[in-house]
Design a protein that fits this description.
486 residues; alpha+beta; 8-stranded antiparallel beta sheet; 16 helices; 22 strands; globular
């Protein structure tokens, strides 16, 4: 029995690795046998791969969807690369044979951004190694998730400066978008803390880029939505890590007072982390929750009186808790596990993520939430917190032209009801247009229908820079078609 099992496993491995031998250019289909290859009018051999290219229904179906569960696009194949060179080879092959390509990290976008119909999905999760880790930087492959990186750096008392609220996202994925979090008022977004990249362009070339080498490519890829290259390796800045976090939850009944205090806190940087939410009021309507954290290492302790001085939260509502630094950053793990256990994690997620000008945020948010009920939001979190735009250095990370802007996000979980989902998507578009008309922008991980003219406005005044980079690095328009930009 042992020999049979071993032989079966060996044969299965051979079948899996040899299932695709090439591509039928005329019929636009993968070829899996020598007989089919000989019958093809125009057959091209698949290059050697260290990993595996899959065409089975299960592999393709697994990446035809994303966290939004709103858009379905079935690729013709899925590459699980065994090396960076696999990505170089498959992109070159795709360019030669007019195939679209998209890199997929954790598939956490909401509207098909990392999907491709009848093309090649590159599953980046197999590129998950952490390389050199030194006192001020770390070199990682793009498929590493931030929680994995954080656990490694904390062993050396180091941390990335900025982490997203959910840390089970891939490094390549968030660097393609920006990567915003509660420390962004101090350190910018994650792309502002990248020192160097290795990128596979749409021409199938492996390039190294940084602020000092191939800067044009560096700035086209970071927050570039996958349009000019696939990030395969990143060198990320590290800072000293504390061991603990003292977390303050403060409630407000008045929006103006809430945003005033948020501005105060990011201005004097008394906290390491500042965010906030619009939350349902037990007495009806809405109230506002400020969430802030001060990081420390015992025996040093934060001074609560100093941290809370001059804040105008509702007296008696404050909640103060000490956590480990990692547990604080990993605070969503328990919630996600619960949502997965009750099946809601796989529901549609018509999220909306907007940057609202600081000069108009009270009017915009006040008007909008006055029309909403918890049912309109799917009883989901509404984030609202400020960041300073002088911390943002990359041109394709687009925010309004204000010194302070607010991230306004409705992290909707929709019921399994098409009419409700359509209404939420229509609302997203309406909310976006209202924000756009006052000078706002979008953080494009969400679910908003976007036209080419919308993208031109989003990237103005750097639209020409993006177009030029696209022509230079992806002239055949192969990469990441799901964004719908080109």
């Amino acid at each position: 029995m042992k020999n049979k099992t071993s032989r079966r496993a060996t044969l299965q491995g051979l079948i899996t690795s040899a299932v695709i031998i090439g591509f039928d250019v005329i019929n636009r289909s993968w070829v899996t046998s020598a007989l089919a290859a000989s019958a093809s009018e125009e057959f091209v051999n698949l290059p050697h791969l260290d990993g595996v290219l899959y065409t089975d229904d299960a592999a393709r179906a697994a990446v035809s969807n994303d966290f939004g569960h709103l858009v379905y696009r079935l690729p013709s194949s899925v590459l699980k690369p065994g090396s960076i060179q696999d990505i170089v080879r498959i992109v070159k092959f795709a360019q030669q044979n007019n195939l679209k390509v998209a890199a997929r990290g954790q598939g956490h976008s909401c509207y098909g951004q990392a999907q491709v119909e009848e093309g090649v999905i590159i599953d980046m999760s197999t590129l998950n190694k952490i390389h050199e880790l030194s006192a001020d930087r770390v070199v990682v492959e793009a498929g590493v998730v931030w929680s994995q990186l954080l656990q490694a750096t904390l062993q050396q008392q180091l941390t990335p400066p900025v982490l997203t609220d959910y840390i089970e996202l891939s490094i390549g994925g968030t660097l393609s978008l920006g990567g915003i979090g509660g420390a962004s008022h101090r350190y910018g977004v994650q792309v502002d803390n990248v020192l160097e990249l290795q990128v596979v362009t749409g021409k199938g070339k492996l390039e190294t880029c940084s602020p000092y080498q191939n800067r044009d490519l560096f700035e086209a890829v970071l927050a570039g939505l996958g349009q000019c290259g696939i990030i395969v390796r990143a060198t990320i800045r590290l800072i000293e890590a504390f061991t603990n976090a003292r977390v303050f939850i403060l409630y407000y009944d008045n929006l103006d007072t809430f945003t005033h205090d948020q501005r105060l806190l990011i201005g004097d940087e008394r906290f390491n982390y500042v965010e906030g939410q619009v939350v349902s009021n037990p007495n009806g309507g809405w109230r506002y929750m400020l969430e802030a954290a001060s990081f420390y290492t015992p025996p040093n302790q934060p001074d609560n009186s100093t941290l809370l001085a001059s804040l105008s939260y509702t007296p008696g509502t404050e909640e103060i808790e000490d956590k480990s630094y990692f547990d604080f950053l990993n605070r969503l793990a328990e919630t996600v596990a619960f949502l997965q256990s009750i099946g809601v994690w796989s529901n549609p997620h018509p999220w909306i993520n907007l940057f609202v000008p600081g000069t108009a945020v009270e009017q915009y948010v006040g008007d909008l939430v006055s029309t909403l009920t918890p049912a309109d939001t799917g009883n989901s979190p509404i984030l609202l917190y400020p960041v300073k735009t002088d911390r943002f250095k990359l041109p394709l990370f687009r925010t309004p032209n204000d010194s302070i802007v607010f991230l306004f996000t409705i992290l909707r979980t929709a019921p399994l009801d098409d009419a409700t989902v359509r209404k939420m998507l229509d609302d997203n578009r309406r909310f976006f247009e209202k924000n756009r008309d006052i000078g706002g922008t979008r953080y494009p991980v969400d679910a908003i229908k976007f036209s080419r003219s919308d993208w031109k406005q989003q990237f103005r005044p750097v639209w020409g820079k993006l177009v030029s980079a696209k022509r230079r690095y992806d002239p055949d328009n192969l990469l990441t078609p799901g964004q719908g930009i080109f």
